[in-house]
């Protein structure tokens, strides 16, 4: 099983001193020092999820319950930032609580080619092509997104500037504040981390990013969008966040450049497990039973975009990479034919499970959605995909110039 997970609940990506320029009221304090760092509640939720996978993998026969023994058959890899490393370690605590934590990572300033292949020199991003690819999806008129997402932008503005959504006419921008909703949306060259610059949409995402974390971290409801947001409202504003992820990482050209390397390693790891023979470019070794990759929602969105994967979980918008959520690939073998198949799913705690730190069991699991793999899955209830077909599909979607065979 390969578990490709997002980091846990964290503090906002901008300091409150910056965020407060976007809002009438000051943003709430998470009680944790630092920008984009895991919160204590986020750590607890991640360990709870790891504990669920412990139960599931024990039921499936991949774990024995003897942690020190099982650890030899588990491979962990995490992007080397404090947020991601802490998340991986907390997941390990739930999965193998009695074993010494062993998470593989690249120490800064080195870039992990699995998660940041452009910075690592494995892939090359053509900035002009990136801009054209995104503009091509928008009819060369990115400003039209303002009307397509008018309801979400209007809701965002009403929350930030503290007035009822239904109020007309809407009040002006408070003195000294930045109205992120009115900033022009455009597509220009970005950088290796954010491949295109979407203008005002980037600021909108920064402004709404805290909302989902406020709710999931268990802040008082009066601090969740200053008391103006329900889970439904959070989900609606999150459509803007998901829009940016879709344009930046699921756009076909960008997905091929940024996600071909991790896809190559995923596929080779599945092949290695099926043959029992060491394979260049695979993770772990032929006896590895469980591979856990921990990174950001950008990485998961990119891999999903490369293979055109979609999912929908209760309480979330389509294809949301939820805090701590994971895209899962299982390698199974038919007892009747001996054929190997790949089964994909997306697993994540619901917003309320995160907020309430709900215990997870096999009888009371997180939200789980089976994932259909276009061009590969057969028409059964679990969307099984023959490994040979998955390998052929991978050869079609992976850009060989954006992948290497180095671990």
List keywords for this structure.
8-stranded mixed β-sheet, two-stranded antiparallel ribbon, 13 helices, 11% strand, Rossmann fold, 407 residues
Descriptive overview:
The protein has 407 residues and is of the alpha/beta class. The chain has two domains: 2-121 and 255-402, Phosphoglycerate mutase-like (Rossmann fold, 3-Layer(aba) Sandwich), CATH 3.40.50; 127-252, 3-Layer(aba) Sandwich (Rossmann fold), CATH 3.40.50. Helices cover 39% and strands 11% of the residues. It is built from 13 helices and ten strands. The strands form two sheets. Strands 1, 2, 3, 6, 7, 8, 9 and 10 form an eight-stranded mixed beta sheet that branches. A two-stranded antiparallel sheet has the order 4-5. A hairpin with a 6-residue loop joins strand 4 (188-189) and strand 5 (196-197). Helix 9 crosses helix 11. The longest helix is centred in the middle third of the chain and has 24 residues, at 252-275. The two termini are 18 Å apart. The model has no long low-confidence stretch (mean pLDDT 97).
């Amino acid at each position: 099983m390969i578990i490709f997970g997002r980091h846990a609940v964290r503090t906002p990506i901008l300091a409150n001193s910056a965020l407060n320029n976007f809002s009438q009221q000051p943003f709430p304090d998470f009680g944790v020092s630092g920008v984009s760092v895991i919160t204590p509640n986020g750590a607890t939720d991640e360990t709870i999820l790891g504990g669920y996978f412990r139960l599931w993998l024990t039921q499936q026969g991949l774990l024995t319950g003897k942690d020190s023994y099982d650890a030899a058959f588990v491979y962990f890899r995490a992007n080397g930032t404090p947020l991601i490393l802490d998340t991986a370690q907390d997941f390990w605590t739930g999965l193998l609580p009695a074993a010494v934590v062993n998470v593989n990572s690249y120490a800064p300033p080195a870039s992990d080619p699995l998660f940041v292949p452009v910075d690592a020199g494995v892939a090359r991003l053509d900035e002009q092509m990136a801009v054209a690819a995104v503009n091509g999806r928008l009819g060369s008129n990115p400003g039209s997104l303002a009307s397509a997402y008018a309801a979400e932008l209007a809701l965002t503005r009403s929350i930030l500037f503290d007035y009822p959504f239904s109020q007309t006419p809407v009040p002006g921008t408070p003195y000294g504040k930045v109205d992120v909703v009115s900033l022009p949306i455009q597509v220009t060259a970005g950088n290796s981390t954010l491949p295109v610059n979407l203008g005002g949409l980037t600021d909108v995402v920064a402004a709404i990013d805290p909302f989902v974390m406020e709710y999931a971290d268990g802040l008082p409801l009066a601090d969740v969008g200053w008391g103006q947001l329900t889970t439904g409202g959070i989900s609606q504003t999150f459509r803007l966040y998901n829009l940016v992820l879709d344009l930046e990482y699921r756009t076909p050209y960008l997905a091929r450049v940024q996600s071909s390397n991790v896809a190559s390693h995923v596929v080779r790891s599945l092949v290695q497990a099926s043959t029992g023979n060491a394979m260049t470019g695979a993770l772990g070794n032929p006896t590895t039973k469980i591979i856990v990759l921990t990174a950001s929602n950008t990485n998961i969105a990119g891999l999903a975009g490369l293979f055109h994967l979609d999912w929908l979980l209760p309480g979330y918008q389509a294809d949301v990479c939820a805090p701590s959520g994971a895209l899962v690939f299982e390698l199974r073998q038919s007892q009747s034919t001996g054929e190997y198949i790949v089964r994909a799913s997306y697993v994540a705690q619901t917003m309320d499970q995160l907020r309430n730190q709900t215990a997870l069991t096999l009888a009371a699991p997180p939200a789980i959605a089976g994932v259909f793999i276009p061009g590969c899955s057969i028409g059964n209830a679990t969307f099984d995909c023959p490994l040979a077909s998955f390998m052929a599909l991978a050869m079609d979607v992976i850009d060989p110039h954006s992948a290497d065979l180095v671990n």
